[in-house]
Design goal:
mainly beta; 13-stranded mixed beta sheet; 4 helices; 17 strands; about 30% strand; formylmethanofuran dehydrogenase activity
Length: about 270
């Protein structure tokens, strides 16, 4: 069967909620059923066929051809299947995602992978603020799965991260790993200020020394950590630009945030020069 393709055909003035368009919710529906589905648009609703031209019939493989920052909640609570996106989109990509894979060739806005519990999100571009973080009023961010960003990410990556892995080939903004509870964040570009603010547990891996490190992180010296060679396998993916030699070199380890329970760690690969 051919993938189910949604091509944006109109300019949007309000934000559009695409959470009904996920494989598990579309399974068993006919093309006419899908075209008639209502989507929240500001304070009203639009049917799918008011917004998209639709072709194909495979409800387990969705493709969105749209370059619009007002398209929100793509892949929300997704429980399987595949979603591909061509173009930059709005906020909450993969919100509360359980299983499956989302691959986007473009940029995403705030709260990508918020509350994610499983599956994989692959971003061929940049991610906005609060990647893998807790939403306002919630106490836990991402709780499982893997997120890969080939570009840069905004501020507060992994805020209150509970479980899972975030890999960023480029730079990350301020307050990365703030209030982190557990999980792994790997950054292979520069990282901003206030790294690990309020961090409780978990691991942050850096390929470059941070420009600024909080005084509440204790320098534990250089170590050769064999687990990094095992972790490398989890960090690999097709066309990865991560140098494999980094994982066999000594790392400089910092423990903190000692202003909290202080069981988190920041590992600077290659040590501090």
């Amino acid at each position: 069967m051919n993938p189910l393709v949604f091509t944006l055909k109109t300019e949007l003035q309000q934000r559009l909620d695409l959470s009904p368009l996920v494989p598990n919710l579309l399974q068993g529906k006919t093309p006419d059923d899908i075209k008639a589905l209502p989507l929240s648009y500001g304070n009203r609703h639009l049917n799918v066929d008011n917004v998209f031209d639709m072709t194909g019939e495979d409800t387990q493989h969705l493709i969105f051809k749209a370059d619009c920052g007002k398209l929100d909640h793509i892949g929300a609570v997704m429980q399987g299947g595949t979603i591909e996106i061509y173009g930059s989109i709005g906020a909450y990509l993969g919100r509360d995602m359980r299983k499956g894979k989302i691959e986007i060739h473009g940029n995403t806005d705030a709260y990508t992978a918020a509350g994610m519990k499983g599956g994989e999100i692959f971003i061929h571009g940049n991610a906005g603020d609060y990647l893998g973080s807790a939403r306002a009023g919630e106490r836990q961010g991402m709780r499982g799965g893997r997120v890969i960003v080939t570009g840069n990410a905004g501020h507060r990556v992994g805020d209150q991260l509970r479980r899972g892995m975030i890999i960023i080939e480029g730079d990350a903004g301020d307050y990365c790993a703030s209030r982190m509870v557990a999980g792994t964040i790997a950054i292979f570009g520069q990282v901003g200020s206030y790294l690990g603010y309020g961090m409780q547990r978990g691991t942050v891996i850096l390929s470059r020394p941070p420009a600024h490190l909080l005084a509440t992180f204790n320098d534990c010296g250089q170590h050769e950590l064999l687990f990094l060679r095992l972790l490398e396998k989890s960090l690999q993916y097709p066309n990865s630009r991560i140098p494999r030699a980094l994982f066999s070199a000594p790392v400089q380890r910092f423990a903190g945030d000692l202003a909290t329970i202080g069981k988190g760690e920041i590992l600077v690969m290659g040590g501090i020069q």
